[in-house]
Amino acid sequence: MTVRIGLMGPIGCGKSTVAGWLGERQGVVVVDADQVAREVVEPGEPALEAIIGRFGGEIRRPDGSLDRAALGQIVFADPAALGDLEAIVHPAVRPLILATIEGAEAAGADAVVIEAIKLVEGGLAAMCDEVWLVTCQPAVQHERLIERGSSEADAAARVMAQADLTERATTAATRVIDTSGPPAETRSLAERAFDEALRPV
Q: Whole-prediction pTM value?
């Protein structure tokens, strides 16, 4: 039986890092919801046209692709705009994620790891056997965003936009993985949790 593990948490807290570690384990398939979300807004996709219709042509690059940076500046400063964006993207992403999960299970995968910042809001948490909340201290989160190339103002806006995510997600989480410490320590915590998740009850 394939175990479904959902990974959620604020930006910059290490979801992708934890997913990467788990993905190195044999028999594990990782589904990156953000990557799927990128695919559904490629030129020619209905979701892209819906986003342009909502936010305007200035977020379309000359080559026809979505200017994600420009869109990010809009939605991370406006909760209502972020909600509108999610209402367009989530319904397009969900069927592709479900298809990948079904394919992995049909192939006999030991586990499917679904990495999604809005695992609960997207309706995916209810489908998982375990839901992991990947979190870290706000100062660490801010520092990581700066290291990725965000400006001080942009990093602060992104942290603030997701400030209540951890609180809301805690009720749905079966495990909490705090990544504030050294990477080796965090990896040990994640792998121990994974072994427990796969251990028969």
A: 0.84
